[in-house]
Write a structure and sequence with these properties.
Layout: H1 3-14, E1 20-29, E2 41-42, E3 44-57, E4 62-67, E5 72-77, H2 87-101, E6 109-115, H3 125-140, H4 147-162, H5 169-176, E7 181-186, E8 192-196, E9 202-212, H6 216-234, H7 249-254, H8 261-285, H9 289-305, H10 312-322, E10 327-332, E11 338-346, H11 350-365, E12 370-373, E13 381-382
Helix pairs in contact: 2-3, 2-4, 3-4, 3-5, 4-5, 6-8, 8-9, 10-11
The structure holds alpha-D-galactopyranose.
């Protein structure tokens, strides 16, 4: 993005020509879906689509925000900090509130922000806003919080101000992203390991359904509860079980008949998915991209049939991609009910894939899909 436009707007609105400039990227996830809030493993990376901010302090004790994407201003007294009825502003207010809960008193701040992460596409534009703003407050007011603490605050902001009980993956990937590296994160211990994303001859291609079904956030929270129901039941057999991460597949199978089928299938998916992340990490290390691709296909099937967070549009894209010569991996990505599929496509077939999948999608659904070829980049940071 052209940061001069942001700076210009910031100067025009707030009369400050030398703001802090922060870039906060979107994220993809190779594999490990709906595992983060089950204390499991994920394998995401930050991408070259981002939200950019121009920010400075003001001495008026006001939060003054301007969203370039909505061409809208927002203002609130810093002392009156609370949730507003402006959805986009809540992502920033929620972060300020987390700092407040840690005993800081964020003063006045003027922010202009905007970017090219498509909203509702499952690329975590909201987490990019949250983490970017956390970094801004931390820098401008010199709070000295660590990157990991900012990740946690951004996640909490999403819980408390956006009402989505998300795991930690998005905020983590966005802050800790590294150029050409995917990150395997243990969502319980927060230990992580980078893996070189050298896809020799293959390319990551995202295909955006351009739909986001309205049940997405309620269904997300419901899945979380269904997983907890499974844990509660399995705990009877082993009190050490705290999350689905602790449940071996054998134990689940042993007690299958004592559980509601729906809860059983939710648990089975999560346990299998954790195993797939471990195997994918090894496969990538060994340069076995084909195995990674096969595991991604299995993930889609699990998300569609057992976890039930896919939708017609995502399945149309997946079914087309899996049979396409040159595609070795494909699956829906993120929370579900819309957004993108992630595909691993042979370099030589990328152009043909893009053309044919968009044509097929339009013929079957009447809607136009958008394709994004993404590069893996560094996480949130100050750029000026
Ligand atoms: C959303 C959430 C994440 C994660 C994914 C599913 O992106 O924000 O925490 O749970 O869905 O893997």
């Amino acid at each position: 993005m052209d940061t001069t436009a942001l700076q210009k707007k910031h100067n025009e609105l707030f009369g400050n020509s030398n703001p802090l400039l922060v870039r906060s990227p979107g994220r993809i996830n190779l594999i490990g879906e709906h595992t983060d809030y089950n204390d499991g493993f994920v394998f995401p990376a930050a991408i070259d689509k981002a939200i950019w901010f121009a920010a400075s302090k003001n001495d008026k004790a006001l939060f003054r925000f301007y969203s370039m994407d909505y061409s809208q201003s927002f203002e609130m007294k810093a002392d009156d900090l609370s949730k507003s009825n402006v959805a986009w502003a809540n992502y920033l207010l929620g972060v300020a509130d987390q700092f407040k809960k840690r005993g800081y008193q964020p003063g006045g701040v003027d922010v202009v922000f905007g970017g090219d992460i498509p909203i509702g596409a499952g690329l975590s534009s909201s987490a990019a806003v949250e983490t970017g703003f956390a970094m801004i407050l931390n820098k401008l007011f010199g709070y000295g919080e660590s990157n990991m603490e900012m990740v946690k605050m951004a996640q909490k902001a999403e819980h408390e101000y956006a009402g989505v009980m998300c795991g930690i993956m998005d905020q983590f990937a966005i802050v800790f992203g590294k150029k050409q590296q995917a990150i395997k994160l243990d969502c319980r211990t927060l230990d992580f390991e980078y893996a070189n994303l050298n896809l020799t001859g293959y390319q990551i291609v995202l295909v955006d359904t351009k739909v986001k079904h309205s049940l997405a956030s309620s269904a997300y929270n419901q899945r979380r509860q269904e997983c907890e129901t499974g844990v509660k039941m399995l705990k009877k057999y082993n009190p050490d079980i705290v999350a689905l991460r602790d449940v071996p597949l054998d134990l689940l199978l042993e007690h299958k008949n004592e559980m509601e089928d729906l809860v059983y299938r939710r648990c089975k998916y999560v346990i299998e998915e954790n195993n797939r992340v471990a195997e994918s990490f090894e496969a990538l290390h060994q340069g076995n991209i084909r195995r990674l691709g096969e595991l991604m296909m299995d993930t889609h099937a699990g998300l569609r049939d057992d976890f039930e967070v896919s939708c017609k549009e995502l399945d149309i894209l997946f079914d087309f991609a899996k049979d396409f010569n040159g595609v070795i991996g494909s699956r829906m990505m993120g929370g579900g009910f819309g957004g993108c599929t992630i595909n691993i496509v042979a370099q030589s077939e990328v152009e043909r894939f893009k053309l044919e999948i968009t044509k097929h999608y339009e013929q079957t659904t009447g809607n136009k899909a958008t394709v994004y070829q993404v590069e893996v980049v560094d996480g949130t940071g100050v750029v000026g």
